Amino acid sequence: MSQARSILVVDDDETFRSRLCRALSERGLEVHSAKSPPDALALANEESPEWALVDLRMPGGSGLDLVRELKAIDPATSVVVLTGYGSIATALEAVRLGATHYLTKPADVEEILKAFERPSSPEKPVEAPEEVPSLARAEWEHINRVLTDCGGNISKAARLLGLHRRSLQRKLSKYPVSR
Fold first, then answer.
1. Is the C-alpha dihedral spanning 136, 176, 62, 22 positive or negative?
2. Where do the H-state alpha helices sit in 34-79?
3. Each residue of 59-80: pLDDT tens digit?
4. Contact, 94 vs 81, CB < 8 A?
């Protein structure tokens, strides 16, 4: 059998990263892991991986910046971006920067492996989804994501969003119309 493919898994979630690394290793891959973009770059400079699975949002740097830097180290590295905060804009930006594919969490190991094995088609335009969330829905989801990142602290989330605390509370009390 030929030498195992190498994959670099970059995710700040320790539990998710260790489980994913174990599952990939059980499927015959040579797995390296990093918890931050600086750690990932250090590993990639030592031994450039054939594949890299990169989380989009991490402390210590953006996954999008990491895609660009990994491709600069070795253009042959196939990069898949994995995120819990998927959007069309970030998917397009990831592909523009050199990512092969873009997956949203939760994604299982089989989906991840298929993303690496499926050929990328840069000449094929990215198709817009048939259903796009309304602006109110997108705003509500963004507000809730920021609130979650702030641990439920309304005052802190309001400061980050540039809103008055009471305005944020009013927005949170309204559930957006789905379309």
1. negative
2. 37-46, 63-73
3. 777 888 888 888 888 888 889 9
4. yes
DSSP secondary-structure letter at 99? -
Which of 39-48, 69-78, 120-129 is the least confident region? 120-129
Q: Which two tokens stand for residue 121?
A: 């088609």
Distance of CA 166 to the CA centre of its chain: 32
The C-alpha angle 35, 150, 146, rounded to 5 degrees, equals 90
Residues whose CB is less than 8 angstroms from the CB of residue 97 and which lie 6 or more positions away in sequence, other chains included: 64, 67, 68, 71
Cβ atoms of residues 71 and 98 within 8 Å? yes
pTM exceeds cut of 0.85: no
Buried b (16+ CB within 10 A) or exposed e, 134-171: eeeeeebeebeebbeebeeeeeebbeebebeeeebeeb
Q: CA 3, 94, 5 angle in degrees (round to 5)?
A: 5
Q: Please answer whether residues 103 and 115 qualify as being in contact, where contact means their C-beta atoms are separated by less than 8 angstroms.
A: yes
pLDDT single digits (tens) 104-113: 877 888 888 8
Phi and psi angles of residue 164, each rounded to the nearest 5 degrees, phi first: -75, 145
